[in-house]
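Consider the tokenized backbone below.
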């Protein structure tokens, strides 16, 4: 082994060690515990596939998966549309105002999920109720008191937090579009829509791959916002998959069963992410 390859592995070793200790080892333990009746302290028996067969008849877990899937679809579409719209807005010729707007739009992403949840809980319960009483509009009354309003409350919170972050990704790609292309399109008389659809959209296709992956993974693993805003209520109707797994592990103290749920949930997220990356990468090539 020459000095070059030795130094390469010396510098790489801490990263590999951290990856092993933080990701690979806990995952291996999690898989093992999912085949046991581990309660957080002891393992009494090895139950095999019992935990996995049990979860497919767990109506609350299946309901939380379905709720998470619906939330993820709406949230991912909404975040990317709003993020793209904001990126197109702040990349216009506005001088120093462009930087100000970028900062304002990005700021919600700096606030922690728990804090955001309590902020929006106050807005939905106190502010909306006050507006409903003053205007007489029934729409503002009873927010977070039903599955429907709880669902849209979580979506609004997620959009408000993530749109500015996704905006930054789209901005980085929009700023790399050659000015010569846009000037040529203007000379040819292209409309604003034509310039976006025929020039900008194909050139920022890689941004969609990145943004969709980030928003998908973040939407599926939402926990702190769910906890602070609705705590899964009313009656577990807005409980997302991450909260269901947490409650099984730390409230019921059935960590072996919770691990089996987590492994299935990980598999679902990984499968969807791989399919999404494959489809969007192929779309990039086609464009």
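A designed sequence for it:
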């Amino acid at each position: 082994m020459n000095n070059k390859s030795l130094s390469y592995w010396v510098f790489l070793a801490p990263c590999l060690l951290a990856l092993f200790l933080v990701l690979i080892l806990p995952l291996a333990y999690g898989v093992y515990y999912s085949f046991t009746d581990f309660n957080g302290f002891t393992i009494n028996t090895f139950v095999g596939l019992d935990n996995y067969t049990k979860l497919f008849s767990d109506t609350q877990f299946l309901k939380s998966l379905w709720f998470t899937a619906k939330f993820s679809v709406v949230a991912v579409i909404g975040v990317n549309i709003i993020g793209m719209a904001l990126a197109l807005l702040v990349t216009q010729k506005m001088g120093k105002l462009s930087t100000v707007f970028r900062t304002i739009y990005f700021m919600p992403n700096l606030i922690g999920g728990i804090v955001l949840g309590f902020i929006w809980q106050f807005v939905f319960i106190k502010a909306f109720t006050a507006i409903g009483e003053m205007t007489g509009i029934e729409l503002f009354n009873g927010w977070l008191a039903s599955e429907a309003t709880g669902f849209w409350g979580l979506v609004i919170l997620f959009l408000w937090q993530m749109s500015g972050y996704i905006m930054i990704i789209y901005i980085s790609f929009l700023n790399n579009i050659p000015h010569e292309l846009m000037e040529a399109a203007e000379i040819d008389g292209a409309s604003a829509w034509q310039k976006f659809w025929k020039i900008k959209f194909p050139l920022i296709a890689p941004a969609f791959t990145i943004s969709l992956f980030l928003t998908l993974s973040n939407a599926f693993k939402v926990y702190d916002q769910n906890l602070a805003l609705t705590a899964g209520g009313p009656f577990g109707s807005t409980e997302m998959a991450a909260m269901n797994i947490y409650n099984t592990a730390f409230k019921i103290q059935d960590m072996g069963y919770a691990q089996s749920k987590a492994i299935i949930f990980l598999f679902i997220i990984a499968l969807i992410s791989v399919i999404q990356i494959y489809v969007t990468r192929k779309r990039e090539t086609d464009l």
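The chain is about 75% helix and 0% strand.
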